[in-house]
Amino acid sequence: DQQVKQNSPSLSVQEGRISILNCDYTNSMFDYFLWYKKYPAEGPTFLISISSIKDKNEDGRFTVFLNKSAKHLSLHIVPSQPGDSAVYFCAASATGTYKYIFGTGTRLKVLA
Amino acid sequence: EPEVTQTPSHQVTQMGQEVILRCVPISNHLYFYWYRQILGQKVEFLVSFYNNEISEKSEIFDDQFSVERPDGSNFTLKIRSTKLEDSAMYFCASSDGRPSGSPLHFGNGTRLTVT
C-alpha cells in the first residue's frame, strides 16, 4: 500500500524555466510534508517543509504548495538551474508516529 | 553545518554473515532513524529510536535486525545472518524533534552488498 506517490518518474526542464514536481498521498492523517533532493552516492538533503495548517511555504527558489482536499502537494523551482538536476522525494508524516513515508522519487533533469 | 556521518561507505559481506552499520548522528539530535533504498526503488523506513528504545519499526525490521546506541555518539544497525535481498543503501538520519515538525537529516549512506 503506497501511501505517498510520485507518478512522474522523470522530468526535463530548460534552464531558467519552472520545474513542477508533484506528489499525492492517501493518508488523511498526514500533517507534515517534506521535500528532499538526492544526488547519486549521497544521502537525501532536506529542501523545504510544509505543515498541514498552511497551503504554501516559500524558501528562495523553492515553493511548496499543499492542497489538502486533493491530498496533493507540489514543489516549484524557479528558475531551474543545471545544479538542480537530481532525484526529488516527497515525504509525509502523521502526528503520533515516529516515521516519514517517502514517495518513489522524480528524476529532474535541467537542460542548459 | 553539522552532519550525520556513516561508516563504512561500502560493505561487502557473504550471505549468512553478520554486519554492523555505524552512524554518528548530529550531536544535539534526539531522534534517530534507519532507512534503506534498494537500487532504483523508494526510500523505505526501517526503524526509529528515541530515549534508548525503539519508537516505531516497519514490517521489514524483523528479528534479523537490531539497533543500539552503545554510547553518547554512535547509533548502530546490526543485521544478523544477511540475505541476498538485504543488499541496499542504508541511510541513517537524525532529527532534533519528533516527525510532524522536524525534518530528518541524512548521512551519505552505507552501500551493503551481500554475495
Question: What's the story with the biggest beta sheet of chain A?
Answer: 6 strands, mixed
Helix and strand run of chain B: EEEEEEEEEEE
Number of strands of chain B: 11
Distance between the termini of chain B: 37 Å
Number of helices of chain A: 0
What's the helical proportion of residues of chain A? under 10%
Order of helices and strands of chain A: EEEEEEEEEEE
Number of helices of chain B: 0
Task: Provide mean pLDDT of chain A, rounded.
Answer: 95
Low-confidence stretches of chain B: none
Gyration radius of chain B, rounded:
13 Å
Overall radius of gyration of chain A: 13 Å
Note the gap between the termini of chain A. 38 Å
- Multimerization state: heterodimer
Structural features, described:
The complex is a heterodimer of chains A (112) and B (115). Chain A has 112 residues and is mostly beta strands. Chain A is built from no helices and 11 strands. Chain A has strands at residues 4-5, 10-14, 19-25, 30-38, 45-51, 56-59, 62-67, 72-77, 86-94, 101-102, 106-111. Chain A starts with a strand and ends with a strand. The model of chain A has no long low-confidence stretch (mean pLDDT 95). In chain B, strand 5 (43-50) and strand 6 (53-57) form a beta hairpin. Chain B is built from no helices and 11 strands. In chain B, strands 2, 4, 5, 6, 9, 10 and 11 form a 7-stranded mixed sheet that branches. Chain B has a 4-stranded antiparallel sheet with strand order 1-3-8-7, with no helix packed on it. Chain B is an all-beta fold and 115 residues long. The A-B interface holds A 31-32, 34, 36, 41-46, 49, 51, 89, 91, 93-105 and B 4, 6, 31, 33, 35, 41-45, 48, 50, 55-56, 58, 91, 93, 98-101, 103-109.
